[in-house]
Every structure is written in C-alpha cells, then in structure tokens.
Q: What sequence folds into this?
C-alpha cells in the first residue's frame, strides 16, 4: 500500500510540474504576441503621420553639391524684356575660329550686331548665349544646344579672364566676337576637350545686363 501511495504522489507531482511548465510557455507566448502587436501598431502609427513621413522623405533625398562644383548666378527678371526676347529668338551663329597663332595674352573683340543701352561694367550680372570654337574649327561648347542662356557676374573670376575682360563694354542685344589667347583661357593645362595652349573664339549674344547699382 505504501508503495502505491508513493507512486500516486509521484504521478501527481509530475502532473503539477507539467501543468506549471505549460503555464510558463503560454505566458511567454502571450508576451511575445503582445510585443509583436505593439511594434506593428507603432509602425502603422508612424506611417500614418504625415509630418513624420515628410521628415523621413526630406532626410532621404537631401543632397548637396560638391564644394568645387561650379554654379551659375541666379538671374533676376530681365531689365529689357522685349529686347531679351528678341535676342533669345536668334539662332546659334556660325562662329569664326581663332587664328592658330593668336598671341597667348590676346583678348580681341569685334561687334557683329550692335546693342543698345548702358554697356557692361565689372560687377554687372550678364545673361548671354554663346558658341565657342577651337582653331581647327571644333565647336567645344555652346549654350543654344542646352536650351537656356548662361548668367555670370563679369569681373568676379567666375569665368576665364578673357571673358571677364572681353565682355566689358558690350550692350544688351549685341553679338560680340571674342578671340582669346591661351593664357587668358585655359593655359597650359587645357580643359576637357580644349587642349593645352589653345586659343579660343566665341560669339556671345548679350541677352540682359543687370547692374547691382
């Protein structure tokens, strides 16, 4: 009888132990499920918050230009809209190449189409269309193909010295031919498709002039 009682007691203890372990497993599973549901609810709340979503989008797409990336100066509204439209309606000219023996320090100018108004001075914001050619007739750059003019502050070192010097005195509507020696352009280093020690020629149309004064 004693042996039977002991067996019954052991079986009862085993059942209680199994029940306790089962309860622990259920409790752990419930905690895990609650944690998952809480995380999902937080995620859905974040997605439905327009302000939070906007912040995340702005952070993900924010970019900055490299420090050495050239940028054009912002052009205000044209000072002479009618004249600017007239100039913008012109097509790209057939630019005469520079002589191969152009002196290295040369900055030569010639007016092909007369302009009007106050001439360009150092510090003026000038909007232009242009074509550039090498001595062999290669066209290395032009603004017409890009569909928009180029804006620069004359005399501020934003362009080659030959432009800073050669654009002074030009007027709105003028087409000016520039012949620039290599030392006043890209010198012995060259630039892109422009070889070292290359003279350059440009035809430049003055679309607008904005004087800071």
A:
């Amino acid at each position: 009888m004693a042996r039977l009682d002991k067996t019954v007691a052991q079986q009862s203890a085993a059942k209680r132990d199994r029940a306790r372990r089962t309860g622990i497993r259920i409790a752990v599973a419930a905690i895990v499920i609650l944690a998952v549901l809480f995380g999902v609810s937080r995620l859905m709340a974040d997605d439905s918050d327009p302000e939070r979503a906007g912040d995340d989008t702005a952070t993900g797409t924010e970019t900055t230009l490299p420090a050495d990336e050239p940028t054009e100066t912002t052009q205000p509204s044209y000072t002479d809209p009618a004249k600017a439209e007239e100039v913008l309606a012109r097509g790209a000219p057939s630019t005469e190449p520079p002589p191969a023996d152009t002196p290295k320090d040369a900055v030569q100018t010639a007016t092909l189409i007369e302009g009007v108004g106050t001439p360009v001075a150092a510090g003026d914001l000038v909007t232009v269309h242009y074509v550039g050619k090498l001595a062999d007739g290669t066209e290395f750059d032009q603004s017409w193909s890009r569909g928009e003019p180029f804006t620069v502050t004359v005399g501020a070192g934003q362009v080659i010295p030959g432009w800073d010097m050669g654009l002074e005195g030009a007027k709105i509507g003028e087409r000016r031919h520039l012949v620039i020696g290599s030392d006043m352009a890209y010198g012995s280093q060259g630039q892109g498709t422009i070889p070292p020690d290359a003279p350059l020629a440009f035809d430049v149309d003055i679309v607008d002039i904005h004087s800071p004064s």
